[in-house]
Specification:
Largest sheet: 4 strands, antiparallel
Strand content: 15-25%
Structural class: alpha+beta
Number of strands: 6
Helix content: 25-40%
Strand order of the largest sheet: 2-1-3-4
Distance between the termini: 27 Å
Order of helices and strands: EEHEEHEHHHE
Oligomer: single chain
Length: 171
């Protein structure tokens, strides 16, 4: 029996109405309206839609940076609300909106994230070498992030997402 890596059931996010002193009041808005899906091991799922469709809101709920109004999220058949800390240790994340410290080198950035992920010093260096090689950035390891091209920066952000060898990566 294959365990779902991620299962989302009837996820909904509604932002309440806002009364403003200046400008028009804002009516309640449902950004994510009752979505359900499952992602199996080695499966790729893409969320497509126009601006305002709820893609970013969904990702924020999947990472617990925003609480859903209703619905359930399960990683590895565990309820995300009750096993959040344990689950997040197995979830990698990369975003084009993420900013890396520009004055640090690629390797220094990845070391910092490795420490934040709780990896041992030896394991950090092994994972950095593996990820930099995999993403073709070994030659740029000692380059400050601020001088990298947009494509190179994206590769470093991806290396960061895979650094802790997560079970699932949200991009």
């Amino acid at each position: 029996v294959m365990v779902a890596v991620l299962r989302v059931e009837n996820l909904k996010k509604t932002f309440p109405s806002v009364r403003r002193f200046f400008g028009p009041n804002r009516a309640a808005h449902t950004a994510v309206d009752d979505i359900s899906f499952t992602v199996a091991e080695a499966e790729i799922l893409g969320l497509l839609g126009p601006n305002g469709a709820g893609k970013t809101t969904t990702v924020q709920m999947l990472l617990s940076t925003m609480q859903p109004t209703s619905g359930n999220i399960f990683y590895f058949d565990q309820d995300f609300t009750t096993h959040r800390s344990e689950i997040l240790g197995s979830v990698g994340f990369a975003s084009t909106y993420a900013k890396l410290p520009e004055r640090l080198t690629v390797r220094s950035n990845l070391r910092m994230y490795g420490r934040l992920y709780g990896l041992s010093s030896r394991h950090i260096e092994q994972r950095i070498d593996h990820c930099l090689t995999f993403f073709g950035m070994q030659q740029r390891a000692d380059t400050e992030v601020g001088v990298l091209s947009a494509g190179e920066t994206t590769r470093v952000v991806l290396a960061k997402a895979f650094l802790a060898n997560p079970k699932i990566v949200i991009l």
